[in-house]
Amino acid sequence: MKIIFITLFYFCFFAAANAVEKIEMQGLFANKAVLSVDGKRYVLATGEVSPEGVKVVSADSRGAVLEIDGQQEQYNLGDTNTVSTMFSERKKHQEKIYINSAGMYMTFGNINGRSVRFLVDTGASAISMNSDQAKKLGIRYDKIGIPAGVSTASGYAKAYRVHLKSVSVGDITQSNVEAFVIDGNHPGPILLGMTFLGRISVEHNGNAMTLTQE
Length: 214
Hints:
CATH architecture of the largest domain: Beta Barrel
């Protein structure tokens, strides 16, 4: 009887921890978020996980990144999202990029649904583009961006921090990705940096780089 009871208890807990129907962001603080998960209210610090399996990856007064069933998404104050993760099987997406004659990993992708050419740069902390590229993509960095400063090969430069609705390389897609728009003509190609690459697996094998999203 004990074995049967424990097995049933484990099954019920597993199902509860993997079935989230509704999440609402009710409060935001430095490294802490107030969430309503299926009607239950929790105050979770960065790194903490609710009984339903919702993890707070990061949080500040502007928004929080939550992880549900291995998928991360940005939430702002008042956001409500209906999700279903019960027994969902994650699909693995891979994209292989080969080094070119100049020793760089170049590939095509999309930003906010528009075609772009990326230079894959694991040394770049974020996706970065110059102001002309941003304008062509319809990114109103001067209106919605947060002023910032970045260090480039040419020295210190004025920049704007923005969030891109979507970034894709092949079948790999990430939403709400942080990026920098730099005044002037630097960088040349758009740098695919760690705000995208840090969410996936990146492997080097000979002259190929394999990007994997699980």
